[in-house]
Design brief:
Layout: H1 3-9, H2 13-20, H3 22-41, H4 45-49, H5 58-64, H6 70-81, E1 95-98, E2 109-112, H7 114-135, E3 145-148, E4 156-157, E5 163-165, H8 167-174, E6 183-184, H9 187-190, H10 195-206, E7 211-216, H11 218-232, H12 237-240, E8 246-249, H13 255-264, E9 271-278, E10 281-285, E11 294-296, E12 302-308, H14 309-315, E13 322-324, E14 333-340, E15 347-357, E16 362-368, E17 372-373, E18 380-381, H15 382-396, E19 399-410, E20 415-426, H16 431-445, H17 447-453, E21 463-466, H18 471-478, E22 491-492, H19 496-508
Length: 509
């Protein structure tokens, strides 16, 4: 570690010790978050309506505050957008994160209060750097530039009271000035509205810089890396940026892209670290390089609750069983429910996670409550799909750029199959063999899928359709969703998305 990085690293020691104590103090820390939230919001309209001042324990909180969705909070959020104060959270909120809206064109505006910026999103970035430096004492992190790819559009005014943008754009607009000392490219470039022009500008301004770290979504960063290589006339990124040491990634699973990154960055000094920073809050950091699970961050002004996916997705019960963090179990898929200092109360964000350890609580993202296939009782979630795709790629030498899957009903046979549209960067020698391995992997990962595939009781073998190059890019462009936090929905329980993509694929044929 160089002198500059070593000196700055000393400032992270205290937070590192606090994070390392999560397992010991988890219950106390989470109750502190709840009391802090209730006390802060007791004089807001929401707090007054729900009697926050007289809440004495967690059971009171559950009884007073029903589970919320965006639709139930939307009238309150609209009042905040129109400049009203002390609605869901004390004082005035200027910034709102516009959700990507991957399943429909409806926009959601998540309040980004000054409190959640400071104690959650920026603390998450601080802790990510601190944990990375703890794990890699040889780092020269602060002597090189950090390339951050995010913010698909400049923030726009919603009215004369409020502004919106995707989360990365909001964070960049409010980022502490000292971060800009090591960050590239310039703000006016990273916030350009037109994605393809922005990529070109980033390439021109960074390809010959001394880049040490990357931050962004794997799929979009891969597009930038390929453009950098084309500009530099090189085969690998280590030839262009020999000082590159880490990629902080999030937004989608890294596994389908891991092989491509390892080929383009063939260095044993390159590290990969996952974070989970959503519009609603910063939730997780991969704290151990040898473990792909992330540590749940429990002192960021967020109180966590969880609902078994069996109740939220497949049973659709009106009153699901909700448990606090200390009561979750390992290896079960849970939908996340959060209360935050951004003004979200018992809010179901739509993401599902599975805990891999308890005290401290570590987890992997298993999917979304809206992104799954359960047409035949197979209960296939995104986590299954990501792992199976990776296995099929490794065994066939294929590389997958993007994919989506949905059920296809064969009414004449009284059963169906899963239809996969896959865009390959490198085709397998045999699509049939890729499909066979994918099917076998899914059966090994998901007993419900395996049961439905048994003697093709309900499910026939999956069908794979090869997508023409750029089909998913065209679909995103058509939807106005290029760049930033936008991504292709991996699984869908209806055929709306895959049918649109198949239509585009046919036009390319």
């Amino acid at each position: 570690m160089d002198i500059i990085t070593k000196s700055i690293s000393n400032f992270y020691r205290r937070r590192q010790r606090i994070v390392e104590s999560y397992g010991k103090y988890l219950v106390d820390l989470q109750r502190e978050q709840l009391w802090y939230l209730l006390k802060s919001a007791e004089k807001t309209e929401w707090g007054l309506q729900h009697g926050y001042r007289s809440i004495r324990n967690y059971a009171d909180f559950v009884q007073r505050v029903p589970l919320q969705s965006y639709d139930t909070l939307k009238p309150w959020i609209e009042r905040m957008i129109n400049g009203e104060r002390n609605i869901l959270w004390p004082s005035y909120t200027k910034w709102f994160a516009k959700s990507s809206g991957t399943t429909n064109d409806k926009s959601k505006y998540i309040p980004v209060t000054p409190d959640i910026l400071d104690t959650c999103h920026y603390r998450g970035g601080y802790d990510t750097t601190g944990l990375y430096l703890r794990n890699h004492p040889e780092s020269r992190f602060f002597t090189k530039k950090s390339l951050i790819l995010g913010g698909s559009h400049s923030p726009l005014p919603l009215n004369h009271h409020a502004h919106c943008g995707d989360l990365s754009a909001v964070l960049l607009q409010n980022i502490p000035s000292y971060v800009n000392l090591i960050r590239v490219p310039a703000k006016q470039i990273i916030l350009m509205d037109e994605w393809e022009a922005k990529i070109s500008a980033i390439v021109e301004h960074t390809w010959n810089r001394r880049i040490g770290s990357l931050s962004g979504i794997p799929s979009w960063m891969l597009s930038l890396i390929k453009a950098i290589l084309q500009k530099a006339g090189r085969e690998t990124l280590t030839e262009v940026w020999p000082d590159l040491e880490v990629f902080f990634h999030g937004g989608i699973s890294f596994e389908p892209y891991r092989m491509a990154y390892e080929m383009l960055i063939p260095s044993d000094k390159m590290h990969y670290m996952e974070t989970y920073n959503a519009s609603e809050g910063f939730f997780g950091i991969q704290d151990d390089p040898a473990d792909q699970a992330m540590l749940l961050m429990i002192d960021y002004g967020i109180f966590y609750e969880f609902i078994s996916v069996n109740e939220t997705v497949h049973v659709q019960t009106d009153s699901p069983t909700v448990v606090p963090l200390e009561e979750v179990k390992m290896c079960e898929n849970y939908a996340m429910v959060i209360s935050t200092n951004g003004g979200l109360w018992r809010y179901m964000i739509g993401d599902t996670i599975r805990f891999t350890s308890l005290f401290p609580h570590k987890f992997v993202i298993s999917g979304r409550t809206t992104h799954f296939i359960n047409a035949f009782g197979e209960e296939l979630v995104v986590d299954n799909a990501e792992k199976a795709i990776l296995i099929a790629c490794r065994e066939t030498g294929a590389e997958v750029n993007a994919y989506t899957a949905a059920a296809l009903f064969l009414l004449d046979k009284g059963k169906g199959r899963h239809q996969w549209l896959i865009e390959f960067d490198r085709l397998p020698a045999s699509i049939n063999e890729f499909a066979r391995i994918l099917d076998g992997a899914l059966q090994s990962l998901n007993s419900d899928y395996e049961a439905k595939r048994y003697r093709e009781m309900s499910l026939q073998a999956p069908e794979i359709i090869t997508a023409h190059e750029g089909v998913f890019f065209k679909w995103l462009k058509m939807k106005g969703k290029l760049g930033g936090q936008h991504k292709i929905p991996r699984l869908s329980n209806n055929r709306e998305i895959i049918d649109e993509l198949l239509a585009l694929n046919g036009l390319n044929g």
